[in-house]
């Protein structure tokens, strides 16, 4: 390893040991995309990439916000003082370099997560072995190093074939990023040598008297961050090809549309609850007066039209006449998108079963269990509801 690469690795090792250097992917994405996504969408971030639940514009805005924040922190003296334990980490490394790269590393992780990269941490929550090489390549991209841009493209192609869980070692190995990282490390190290500092011509990290010049930092950090953002954003095409197949992607999008429809259509959810009650009442082909009365009361308080009320009540089978038995094809997904209505549906179905004060039939038990599972009610919760 060259002296230049060793110089960079010394800084890299010191910064990676600093407290708070790891970014929790899911927690960060939830917070960054909260202004642009519903809670139902945010809940899926652990197994989908951000662009699946948010628009490109929303992701770009979240990225710009991160860039602006870390630019400000890297530029101000308060950021240096605020780093927990960082300045004591490596006495031989200038504190300005530590605080600068501290924000570079954190911002690199955030931008990578926003634009589709998997979690850089392993199962123990520690940055994986490949992280050092990845961060080195990201910094090379910020500096405008062409070979680093090529490295990012190869990495994206490799990880696109896997889920968004942990950074896949196989994909990193296939991408052969170590030689790229070594080249980039040497280039960075060359810019960090004492000769470069003495001459005051450090292109990427201008130093003046051992302290950052706020203005110069502003004009290096932000353009570099934007350059990395542009490069990471360009890799979305690889994730589009390899991440989620067309059918799965379509199903996820359909679920999001359904969730939005659910929020804006309480009448449809009330109707679905009543339909579930009617199906339960009709399941044995004979409806008692008690069950009819219970459903009638539910219909009366529902916020639906008179025509809908009449139609619902007309589809309750006449007692003893199996030929009139009727069953709705219920939109269970509409209920699953709203936990309150999902629970109301199950409680209402249980009330129908218990209206006759008889032991539920096998068909009733099976239908109740199936409906509960479909709308997201756990077996444990269902049992508690039955006991209540």
Mind explaining what this structure looks like?
The chain is mostly helical and 388 residues long. The protein folds into 2 domains: 3-244, no CATH class; 265-387, Orthogonal Bundle (TerB-like), CATH 1.10.3680. It has 22 helices and 2 strands. The chain has helices spanning 3-16, 25-33, 39-42, 50-53, 56-75, 77-82, 95-114, 131-142, 146-159, 169-175, 177-191, 194-199, 214-234, 236-242, 246-263, 266-282, 289-301, 306-314, 332-336, 339-354, 362-374, 379-387; strands at 207-208, 211-212. Strands 1-2 form a two-stranded antiparallel ribbon. Strand 1 (207-208) and strand 2 form a beta hairpin. The longest helix has 21 residues, at 214-234. The termini are far apart. Mean pLDDT is 74; it is low at 77-92, 168-175, 194-216, 241-257 and 319-324.
Topology, please?
Elements (H helix, E strand, L loop, with lengths): L2 H14 L8 H9 L5 H4 L7 H4 L2 H20 L1 H6 L12 H20 L16 H12 L3 H14 L9 H7 L1 H15 L2 H6 L7 E2 L2 E2 L1 H21 L1 H7 L3 H18 L2 H17 L6 H13 L4 H9 L17 H5 L2 H16 L7 H13 L4 H9 L1
Antiparallel strand pairs: 1-2
Helix pairs in contact: 1-7, 1-11, 5-7, 5-13, 7-13, 8-9, 8-11, 8-13, 9-10, 9-11, 9-14, 16-17, 16-20, 20-21
